[in-house]
Amino acid sequence: MGAPQNPQTRQLDDVDRIIIDLLQQNSRASNIQLAAAAGIAESTCIARVRSLVARGVVSRFTTELDPAALGLDLQALISVGIRAGQRHLMSSFQTEVRALPGVVQVFFLSGAEDFIIHLAVRNSAEVREFVLQHLSVHPAVASTRTSMVFDHEYNGFLAGAPSGE
């Protein structure tokens, strides 16, 4: 038995998936472009997009930046373990870390590590400085492990997902 569905949502059909895929590729795509690609009328398309937003499927329209074009040539993923006696600080730790310069994303995890911090900086010295100044000295942090990102590709959330039929 699957997880219960939110009554405000319904299954995504092929038209929804086409619209979502196009918006993930270009959030500035016009309604005319979306409608043509989905093979539906413009009025139907705008209603579909509004429905996706109202149902919370599309939470925001955004721009993806190229970190290297901004001089941020190095990305790192830093795994963080929180001390057993400091679990009550997890929420505040996450809030503090999100506000630090260079932090792209923060993931709260289950498993061996408690958080992964996605960092974008100019060079390895800035990664080292980040770990030493913000993580190693933090009273809640028990351990860190840093991995440098050589390359990454973003597929979007529905790439390869089953249709739910």
Automatic annotation (TrEMBL):
HTH asnC-type domain segment(s): 12-73
Sorted alphabetically, the Gene Ontology cellular component annotations on this record are:
cytosol
Q: Which InterPro entries match?
A: AsnC-type_HTH_dom (IPR000485), Dimeric_a/b-barrel (IPR011008), Tscrpt_reg_AsnC-like (IPR019888), Tscrpt_reg_AsnC/Lrp_C (IPR019887), WH-like_DNA-bd_sf (IPR036388), WH_DNA-bd_sf (IPR036390)
Q: Do you know which SMART domains this protein is assigned to? A: HTH_ASNC (SM00344)
Q: Name one Pfam family in it.
A: HTH_24
Keywords for this entry?
Answer: DNA-binding, Transcription, Transcription regulation
Molecular function terms, GO-annotated:
sequence-specific DNA binding
Recorded protein name is: AsnC family transcriptional regulator
Can you supply a Gene Ontology BP term from the record?
A: response to amino acid
